[in-house]
């Protein structure tokens, strides 16, 4: 979905091919950041460019996929993180990542608040769902601050191409439109 949202400090926008370099340097090359992600760290910027060309940019016009570049207002050409929401059956499933140099500054909460307002106001979703590895305490804290509640334990593959034995314990959380509107409007 085409998107361009400004917050107090951020511009949340669609990706362009020139974003590959900052995406690679800020998060895709980082082995530690990829620990809780479904992908492996990229070995070079061409891997990131390929992901943009094959898995992100072709879906910009899809109303059910919101893959958003997180950038700071003062340097909008530098992608510091990614937020993704996939809509299916009136629910959105979300995921996000932020480069290490930009963590612990409230950028993910600022991003989530703006995109949740957008999703609840301009799409038909009633609920936002998130699933993360149990050891990912940072995501648990962020989701808790945003009003998400724990709903279930899940078992997931560690990486998208992991064998069936490479699984992790995940926690499923959700946020309903009713709760969001009561807390944030």
Short structural summary:
The protein is 29% helix and 34% strand.
Point out poorly predicted stretches: none
Largest sheet, spatial ordering of strands: 1-2-3-4-5-6-8-7
Tell me the number of strands: 8
Q: In angstroms, what is the radius of gyration?
A: 16 Å
Output the helix-strand order: EEHHEEEHEHEEH
Strand content: 25-35%
Question: What class would the helix/strand composition place it in?
Answer: alpha+beta
Task: Tell me the helix content.
Answer: 25-40%
Main sheet record: 8 strands, mixed
Question: In DSSP terms, counting alpha (H) and pi (I) runs of 4 or more, how many helices?
Answer: 5
The average pLDDT value, as a whole number, equals 91
Bulk shape:
globular
Instruction: Give the CA-CA distance, first to last residue.
Output: 24 Å
Task: Describe it.
The protein has helices at 20-28, 45-56, 107-122, 137-145, 177-184, and strands spanning 4-6, 10-13, 65-72, 75-88, 91-98, 127-133, 149-157, 167-176. The protein has 5 helices and 8 strands; from the N terminus they run ββααβββαβαββα. It is of the alpha+beta class and 185 residues long. The protein has an 8-stranded mixed β-sheet, sandwiched between helices.
What keyword list fits this structure?
185 residues, alpha+beta
List the helices and strands and how they pair.
Blueprint: E1 4-6, E2 10-13, H1 20-28, H2 45-56, E3 65-72, E4 75-88, E5 91-98, H3 107-122, E6 127-133, H4 137-145, E7 149-157, E8 167-176, H5 177-184
Helix pairs in contact: 1-2
